[in-house]
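B., you asked whether I could sanity-check this one before it goes into the benchmark set. Here's the sequence:
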Amino acid sequence: MVLAETPQRSHETYQVRVEDYKAFRRAGFLHVRNLVAADEVAELAQFTEDMMTGKTSIPGIPAPPANLTDAERRAYYERIHMPHRSLALAERFLLHPRIIDVLEALIGPDILALQTMLFFKQPGQAGQGFHQDSYYIPTQPDTLIGAWLAIDPADEENGCLWMTPGSQHEPIYPDCDGVTQQGDTILSDIDPIKAASHPDVAVNTLARIALEYGNEVKVEAEPGDVIFFGGHVFHRSHQNNAGRSRRAFVSHYCNARSRVPWNHRAAYEGEEEGGAANYKHILARGATHLPYAQPKFGALCAANAPELYGERFDDHRVKSMMGDDNGFMVLVPHEDADHDH
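And here's what the prediction gave me:
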């Protein structure tokens, strides 16, 4: 009988500092530099290059027609949604251990991996206007967070991210265009907005609220940097006006104990699962009482390696807050089953 080897971590653990944690809470986003190694980012860059030249493709995504010019092939793709469901490389980056390390500190310990997007953003391609990600991907309770991995250097000229610090405290504004039924409509005096994500601030009325802050900041990034941002924070990007690309790999996550009534184009369905689509999403770390999916391509995570990425507790005994000999309240393990009520 041959015993299976215990899975091993493939990357050095990343530990979030107290000041970084506070910065995320204070501003609504956190820029972590050099989180992903250069050789890994180069693999993503080469893959997107091969897609644009027609050397490779993602199953289910049409390749550029053979009769296109080189410039036309490079402009063929703008973004691809959910590549992790048909591409092992994308699944691996969705579940990248160092990205999940940061998420564990910010919204964990239990992390559910929801969505991926591959942005090409070649010269001349458009940006995206002011929006809030939790409007598009609702989680209940709302624990959504994005992770934006730079493949190319991103700066003001080629369309980097712009964030509005402090706007993470805003509610999710409902869109009266009826794009979705999301938004904090339970608030008595919330005004619907129109055309979220439209790049023209005269059309996108969420821009009026965002620009009132007067403190929008550009977040320039180098390859391997990851920008983490909460689902409420106002953010946008502009058109690529440079002669070089601004590619990025973007993933979204939530705490694995949140209900997620969302599954990309089949969004807001899942009636057979009690109105939730958690069973479609991957448990990246920790544990949950809700259903979850296994990684299709076997990337290591809590869904298939609980001994490596499972619960972060010293033991499984039930604990209660009790007074110690000095009069302080402390967590005390229950000594026997009789106390487990």
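One thing to flag: Residues 18-314 form a domain with the Jelly Rolls fold (CATH 2.60.120.620). Otherwise nothing jumped out at me.
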